[in-house]
Amino acid sequence: MAPKGRTFFLIFFVACAALAVEHDRTQGKKQDFKYMTKTLMKKCQDKGYPRPQMGLLKTVFARSDVPGKDEDKDEDKDQPDTPLTSFMNILDSVVPGGGSLSRAHPGDVDKMKEEMMNFSNLPSMIKKMRNSSEASACYMKAFVASLCWKALTKKGSNNTDSDDYDTLLSGTKPVVLDMPSTGVNFPEKLAKKDVKKWAKMLREMYVDMREEKRAKVLGWEKEQITQNYFGCTTMPKSDSKSGEMQRCKSSVKWLNSDALMTLGPFLSYLKAADLDSSPKEVLQEFFKSGKLKEALGPVRRMVPRFAKRLLQRLQECCRKEEFAPHMEKLGMLVCYYNPPQNLTRNLSKKLLSLLERCDDDSYPRIKKLKKYLANSMISNVNISQELQELGKSITSLPATTLSKIPSADLLKAIRKYRPDYKWTRGQKRALLRKIVGSKKCKDISREELVGLGSVASCLPNCILKHVRASELLNDIEGLRNISKRMNKGRMKALLQGLYKNTGPSELVKKLPENLLRCMSLKSLQEANITSWDQVGGKNWTREQATLLMQKISKTIKFKFSNRMRKISTVLQGVTCKMIEKTSDNDVPDMVRSITSASRLLSKMQVRCAARRLFARRLKGRPDFFQTITEEEMRDIPMNFLPYMQPEEVMKLPDSVCSVLLDKMEEADPSSSSAGLPSRLALTQRALRFLTKGSSTSSLAIEDVERLGPFLCYLPPPQLQLMDSGVRNYSLETMASCKHIPEKHKADLIQLIKKNYGPGSTWSAETTEALFPLLASYDDCPVDLPFDKPWMKDLLYYLNECQSCKSKTLRKKLFDTIVDNKLDAARRKRTVSGRNDGSTTGVKVPTTELIEELKSNNVFWEAAQLKLMSRETFTETVDTLGDVPDFRADQLSVLSQKAIEAFGPLSQMTEDEVVQLGCITRGFSNKDLQALPFSLDTLEDIADCDWDDIQMEAVWRAVAKYNNQTAQQLGEAEIVSLNRFICGFSSSEIKQISVDAFKEAVDSINDIQCSFTGFQKLKTLVMAAFGPPRSWTETIVSGLGNLIVGLNATDLSELDPPVLSFLKISSIPSITPKNLKGLSVIQLKAFGPDNAAMVTKEQLAALNNDQLSALENAKNGIDMRNTAQPPESGGPSLTMEGIMSFMKPVLFLLMGILLL
């Protein structure tokens, strides 16, 4: 090669290498001091904190703290590299608007950082900030936290003075809590003394940490323990951080006493198998000394299998009877403790007190155990003292026991307890009889009423309507306590009583949150509310917010400003028109206001805000997304980014991808529409950056972590290409996804089967990890190992999982619970050698089974329910009556059981009908009309699966028993009727007072009726609010589900902007024929939330233009003109793709030339 050619080639090689290095540098930017500081400062800005005052800044950043500076020397006064000027430089890039103080050159910031990390007075800055408020010191803490983190994680930090080290460590808390999980790289190796200091700090922050960060802390602390105490590593050989250190053998007992103390609450994140790494004597001493209880203090939930294994290890020390006196040292583990049957009275009392922290719904045995212990403590010898000792567990006493306790003793005990205790329907009726006796509508003084606490929720409306407002409004805490568990009918009755002597303006000032949210739109309209200050700091409903936004905006021109953060719940009523009218100068305030309230807002409101922001950015700068800077990307909220066009996402430059990944890692997936094409585009753009344009086979676990919830949008083919360890991590992380694209689901299940093998062979760890994902399918797509003993605890997860809709798994839970009880009974008979002649192997409902199964009692066969004894039915009627979806054949059996238990229908009392709950659906319509239904209790059975004819029969029974007519109904009665108003005849609906209906409507706007029922109510709706063409956002929002009664012509008259304020639960109930009456413009205005609720049957009725409009409403994008991002995971023709290809080629050519 000619000399010139070689020179040119060398220049080309160096340039390419520089580009490659630049890419790597950008990828590692998360650890850069300035980057970290800006990220933390942005958190302060998002919280609405103002820039700190210069006086405070000069106090904290006193020049005497900087080594080598003399404040008296004039030549030093304007030096550009002081901490204060460097702080201001970074602050101005995040929150513009500072004064004229000299700024440091950006290049001087890193130089200053090194100086700051080496000077001894950084701790004094931290101490000065301790007396400052969070708002005033937030930005300074962000700056100092980054410095402290860098100082403590660099080599040589072990030489820092002990006291200074502790102070610097305390200054790092914002980094640990507020930086994305992957942005927090703990020191690779610390001395033992420093590990203990770090562990202490991390334990203090456990409660405020996110789940993924807790898991990361556990992994890091475990590694520090094994390195320091055992000279080995838990990291895989492939991990570069493991170095030459030997891998720890499985026999290493690393979980010693120091390790247990170090981990503290992070113990709860260990795997069950890790417990075998703790010597028996060490673990038991840790328990008996009380240190385990202290360690688990902040823990609120543990994986059942881990908890049971830990408890098992602890109980190896002694027999059950010897272990019982130590149970107060169990901490959270007490929720899994199975005590011996011969507990002393004192131990029973102690255990009941400990069990108060255990929620009945989360722990299968707890309710039964509490009931047993509570009953064992009631001897009727000294009933008053016994009730006092029961504490919260008084709610475990059955209604029959409560009814036998003297009223004075019972009421005395109740007044001492918290207001939020839960009572069953039967218990409420027993308590009601103790309170009011035979006189249902007696007068109750304020002291008596407030003393009842949560029991006031069972008082009849006629008592609540006559409360004295002047007395009760002076005791806001008492008012809050008695109304905390009231249903809407009783709250409306209480408000009706308060209205008598108090105007709506006064009520707005004084009402506690739960009652304020029940205040009608009509009353709010009448209140003298003219400023934003009057509504700030209150938790309004969306309907109320819509009215207040319109009402106040008529008096004061609406404008986004920093004060809007104080009225975040009122922003639920902001319209897209208001957002679109925001001036360019006010857009930053609009963005911050919308972001602070984003969890409350509809996706339509967020989308409008995103579009307004993007319009401002693109104004005069069409290439904004191609040339966007880090600061500009940081200023865009994460929930706005999915509303970019996919092609705009794919053009984002590499220089902003670190910021993008930070946002993605901590994104809230519920804040934007699940089906947005840009979600997939964001995932692919992030992947292109992380893989440098190559395939997903190059990804490490740390890369996958950076995707956050956007991992859920990774197509199975890209998952398949990953390294096996990374793929396993990804699949197990995806198990917690709230949404996986429908087109990915089938392939994802196939990948899981291929990756882990047949489900019946899975280990407990694998099943546990993947279970939430499998439970989200309608039918479990994998044959799980249901015969394993640990599956029952896993199936119990269904009871607390909101997204688990698998009926197959619920049936499996039913079978597992019932079969386990059968097996236990069979073993008991075998051990005792007793054969009592009872039928073996037959599934018979028992009290214990029914109480444990709860809503899963729906899986009993009618023939099995017939085998239930009368005593069992009587004891469990409250539980069975709560099941809303029994089939007709099951209800037929249960209604007969009711007659056997309570006698003929003609003799049934109001209390017995209340106890039956949803079982009353099993009676004929004629029989329903003869039952003594109380108007006050209809809300308790409103969720049962009633049909129109049954609802009419129930209304007839109510009218007869309560001597009530439609004309006499007030607002409290209308609200108490709930969905049974749909059982009225057309003539009866015309008799309802329009004023009473307007006062009640926004409290019944969530009722479920058939189209026929809603259609009958349309005449009342029109009489109250006029024709649909005149309806505002406030009216549409307030009507809620009642909108379903409109026909196609009525719907077509609605103004398009109001359609995004439709209640989402109303959409599926609109008939396909009527929905078809909406125009293209109206459907486009539906908004993402409402568009997502349209059913397949409704879609089938729409034409192509309407379908396209609905898709536009759902995703904000015209799908016919949208290019989809690639999903293959292969290299793309971008700079990083070219460089990934060119680097090895260049090295090869260089080698050839040097031969």
From TrEMBL:
Q: Which Pfam families match?
A: Mesothelin (PF06060)
One GO cellular component term: membrane
Swiss-Prot/TrEMBL keywords = Cell adhesion, Glycoprotein, Membrane, Signal
> Which superkingdom is the protein from?
Eukaryota
**Where does it mainly reside?**
membrane
- In residue numbers, the region (Disordered) covers 65-84
Signal peptide region = 1-20
Compartments annotated for it: namely: Membrane
Q: Give the GO biological process terms.
A: cell-matrix adhesion
Q: Which InterPro entries match?
A: Mesothelin, Stereocilin-rel
- Family statement drawn from the similarity comment of this UniProt entry: Belongs to the mesothelin family.
Q: Output this protein's name.
A: Otoancorin
Tell me what organism the protein belongs to: Xyrichtys novacula
